[in-house]
Amino acid sequence: RDQPRSRGLGDVYKRQDMDRAVAAFRESAENGVAIAQYNLGVLYFSGRGVEQDYFEAYRWTRVAAEQGFVNAQANLGTLYYNNLGVSDGLTSIWPISYFMRSSRLQEAARWYRSAADQDHGQAQYFLATLYEAGAGLSQNLVKAYQWTKLAIDNEVPEAEGLLTQLEANMTQAQRMTCLLYTSDAADEEDS
Fold it and tell me: CA torsion, points 90, 37, 121, 140, in degrees to nearest 10?
């Protein structure tokens, strides 16, 4: 009998802890602390401790991303890719949202590239998928392959499947270019 009651008290304590955490993140975020801005963005995205709000998630994630916080850059790419919180008013209504998709995908690619350049494995994988599909940038299976290999090096599990798919769809010339790139990169590491 006491167990449900104590579990209920634990929930109250957790809620109070979350309220304190949100308040602390908000105060630090408003004072320009990138990791707090990122964490506040994650909370708004997930609805944990606050009401889910993609516009607030976007706002705080973007501020942290602009400060160079790599996880925020990757998350911002995802917000753009999925059109979550990045547009409001008329631009979020079909069919206008369809026509805005290209510019959103270009922004997604830009932010994924910023994070990928800092060795963020998931961003490398997402950038590879954009190159593979020609979404937001020109289709380029060689670049998709290169970013996929980097994502594999960063232990992104789904990258293996993408690599297999790319190898099946690439021409012989594209595969040779990838082999040259791989051997050039290996030579650079050896020197």
Answer: 30
68: left (phi over 0), alpha (psi -120 to 50) or beta: left
CA distances from 71 to 11, 118, 170 (A): 29, 10, 31
Written as six digits, the tokens of 83 are 């059109």
Helix 54-66 × helix 70-82 angle, to 10°: 140
- Distance between CA atoms of residues 69 and 35, nearest Å: 7
Cis peptide preceding 95, ω within 30 of 0? yes
**Best CA proximity match to 73, nearest among 106, 137, 118, 36:** 118
User: Which pair of structure tokens corresponds to residue 184?
Assistant: 């050039």
Check if the beta carbon of residue 33 is closer than 8 Å to that of residue 40: no
DSSP state of 33: -
pLDDT tens across the length of the chain (191 residues): 444 443 444 454 466 788 888 999 999 999 999 999 999 999 999 999 999 999 999 999 999 999 999 999 999 999 999 989 987 666 666 666 666 788 899 999 999 999 999 999 999 999 999 999 999 999 999 999 999 999 999 999 999 999 999 999 999 999 999 888 765 553 454 44
